Predict the 3D structure of the following.
Amino acid sequence: MDQIYIPKNRAGFSIGNYVVIKPLESGKPKKPIENLYFYGIKNLEPLKLEIVHEVLRVIDESVSNYENIFITGSFLDEGFHFDDIDIIVLVDDIINQEQARRDIERKTGIKGHILVLSNKEFYKGLETDPLYQMILSRCVAKKRFIYKKKQIIDYKILDLHLLKSKILIDNFDMLSGKEKYDLVRNTIAIYLYLAKKKTTVESVDKEIKKSLGANVQEIKDNVLDKKAFLMRYKLVYDKSFDKIIKGIEHGSKQK
Amino acid sequence: MVQNRNKLIDLFIGNITNAIVHEILEHAVRKELVADKYRKELITSFEIAKRYRDKINPRYRYLPDKDVVYLREKIVSRVKTELMVRISKGYKNIDLKLIEPLTDKVLSELKIKM
């Protein structure tokens, strides 16, 4: 039996009373309010939740016939270190992004970064692109959506995606921490995808630590040990590229 | 950091090569590629090349003919090598005829040549 101590003159308790002690906030994820759907998010600060609702209201007013709206990116990270709020609008029509962006900034004081995707783009992306899978592994959705999609490895598409991250090798000194992190994340997401592993925000960040020996904050703060980091990065990059080339070769022989 | 001109030119060539290889591969898989909007946010080789271009003298004028010839030859040859690696493994639809016009286009855009 644990004991608690309270001031002597506190009314309502006598010595020896039994009481229940429980934390003010439980560590469990908070229940989503209204009809929002949370994917891969343990907790969201109440203030951020209000912002999400405001953003959804703005999109709701300016876009009709949308399939879904997703809030993604660093806005969902713990704390308030985000630069903007990433919004994906799933809609087949053309929308006035600029107006919606301005309204979001006016009403919330935060820059809205809106990405409009058609249904076809979205589902194709989820099937073939590890970056889509990673980004949507942690999001707030306006409507429920089925996340599990079959995974298709298209080596030529992955070759093109991986090529984007090659610039990190030769231009290390020229890049900012944020640019480095985006390029590293792209490579590692492809690396995991080729190994048929899960590509979520957590799994990618974990693999960055494991394969590159650097944590995310070090990369973002641009305080990496260049020589050691690049040696590991090249290894991961080359391994991925070799797999892709073998995949292309194998695919061409099957045709 | 002080970097000498040759080093800057070499880095510039590397980035232009990457940008052109990317454009040609994108052309080759255009039918399958419908969803690359996320990567539009990533910094590109072309943007990096622009940063190097700003450090190469003469900055506001075209480069001397001798440099232009050198750069063009190097870029064309490196792009070809990169693409041949893929072609030798059975990659179809890579259009090598695009290399030279794309190289000229990029060099003009970056004020290397007229």
Remarks:
- Helices of chain B lie at 5-28, 45-53, 65-88, 99-109.
- Chain B has one domain: 5-109.
